[in-house]
Amino acid sequence: MFRYVSDCKATDNFVVGLFQPKAENILSYTMRKRLKAVLGEFAIYLGIYSAIVTIYLLFILSSFSGTLSALSESNLIIYSILALALILIQGVILENVTSFIMDRIGFR
Amino acid sequence: MEVNMGLLALLGFAVGVLGAFFGVGGGFLAAPVMYVLGVPINYVVGTDLTHMVGKSVVAAKKHRSLGHVDIKLGALMVLATIPGVELGAQIVEFLKTNELADLVIGVTYIVILMGVSLFVAWESRRALRAVKVEKLTAKDALAFKSFTRKIQSINIPPMIRLQESGIGSISLWAILLVGFLTGLLAGTLGVGGGFIRMPALVYFIGCPTHVAIGTDLFEIIISASYGTLTHALKGNVDIMIALVMHTGAAIGAQIGATLTKYYSGPKIRMYFSILPAIGALLVLYKLISTNILL
After folding, report:
1. Which residue range forms the structural domain that includes residue B182?
2. ipTM reported for the complex surpasses 0.85
3. What are the pLDDT digits (tens) for B208-223?
4. Do B127 and B269 contact (CB within 8 A), yes or no?
């Protein structure tokens, strides 16, 4: 999971402050650095996730489009179950894969 | 059929950000645009529901990691929502025997959505003012508590506790009634119901806005999965289009869900109030352009 957001309370409070501008919200150097790190890590996460979902889509489009098209004509029950399964895989498993990769490359 | 994949993914991205930020499925926006992009009308609803399943899974997972999903509440609400949707669909079938059906449903849709939009805008502005004047904590400030308190004080057993929503005791029947009524409205108006259910969770049940968003998305997973299966069995789902849209939507949902963390409840509700108004204007345009109204 993308844990750094919920793990780091101080960073959270700081970022919340950014979106609710107040007079006392003057950024210190450390805070700026932290924000950069948070945004950078989120950008890396998003980049990896985007690449994985796109690869998954291209793989399904190139390998199974014919089979799925034939199934939609011949067996709607299997097609329905498969449709739901393919979307759920894209929704659930790919995020876990991204979190795994983030962990492996040292981001938590 | 030939549909531009890039534009579909872009549409998915936009609906993903909005859906995860506001806790709605986004069908009111996605369906007309899909039609404009060339998706045949018989595939629009089923395919939109299918991509909604994936997007809601991504967004609900993210909200859950932020502590914004009340699974108990969502599961109980959905138990009553589905019969409500089915009854709503039957009412529509009944109304279709009358030639004024489109006009009646269309005008009801516009009135309800404009009502929701104006009310949420008014309430959120008051809540934001209260935060400033009374120095309340911005996170869950609510300017319309009397009705919520009345619902929470209904004392018909079994009474249940909703820990994630911070509700000490509420009648199970109150939850089921709200679920049924929002389902009935959604079924009658032919929408997923996110932009009716999210405010209902806040104002009727008393959920904090962030929990209402996450819980609504959790409900959408179940109701949209049910819708996907029924539409797919009728041959109204194109899984390839759904997967393309979901590629954009999944990325958008990550951004939308993360953004909620940085906005207070009243602020989210204030921005949310624009959505039902857009939905109402789209229906008004449809009624006028097809000469049903005027």
Report:
1. 5-289
2. no
3. 889 999 999 998 888 8
4. yes
